[in-house]
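User: As part of a screening pipeline, I want to sanity-check one entry by hand. Below is the sequence and the SMILES for coenzyme A. Please return the complex as structure tokens so I can compare it with the automated output.
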Amino acid sequence: MDEPAYQLSRTPPTIEDYLHVRASSGLSPKSVPQGEGALAGSWCWSVVRHDGRAVAMGRVIGDGGWYFHVADMATLPEHQGRGLGRRVLTDLLAQIEEAAPEGAYVTLMADEPGRRLYASMGFVEAAPESLGMRLAR
Ligand SMILES: CC(C)(COP(=O)(O)OP(=O)(O)OC[C@H]1O[C@@H](n2cnc3c(N)ncnc32)[C@H](O)[C@@H]1OP(=O)(O)O)[C@@H](O)C(=O)NCCC(=O)NCCS
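Assistant: Here is the complex for your manual check:
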């Protein structure tokens, strides 16, 4: 992240960049209406841009009180391994620290590529007390 070409900001990505970074980094592709909901309804964003385009991102879905869920952690493959994901997550946690009342409960669903990063930043497995579940459709 020392490269001046990478710029971190808290401005959400464009819908085009959001859909592109998700799909190109291997996360499931989403539709425009899904992306628009994500852009409008998130509690905060951290986005790294390169030449004006988003190359790494993450967001927090939250109630602003105590419940915060980190989502959409993704870095374009050609920009991975340069500290961008760590920078994004550090900034998301800083935003929670800055704006949330004390005692925030911060969760995420840890896909394999992110586990080392999350563990190194203090995340621990919720199981066996709490098993992550999703509605199967
Ligand atoms: C997870 C992800 C966002 C990390 O982004 P990144 O910009 O490459 O992350 P960083 O360069 O900041 O690396 C952060 C940590 O990830 C780990 N890491 C980096 N490259 C790795 C690799 N090839 N394999 C496993 N862990 C790796 C390291 O622990 C690294 O910490 P370090 O800098 O102390 O070595 C990125 O791999 C990605 O977009 N993956 C595909 C999408 C995805 O699965 N997202 C997670 C959803 S839960």
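Points to compare against the pipeline: The chain has a mean pLDDT of 96. The longest strand covers residues 53-62.
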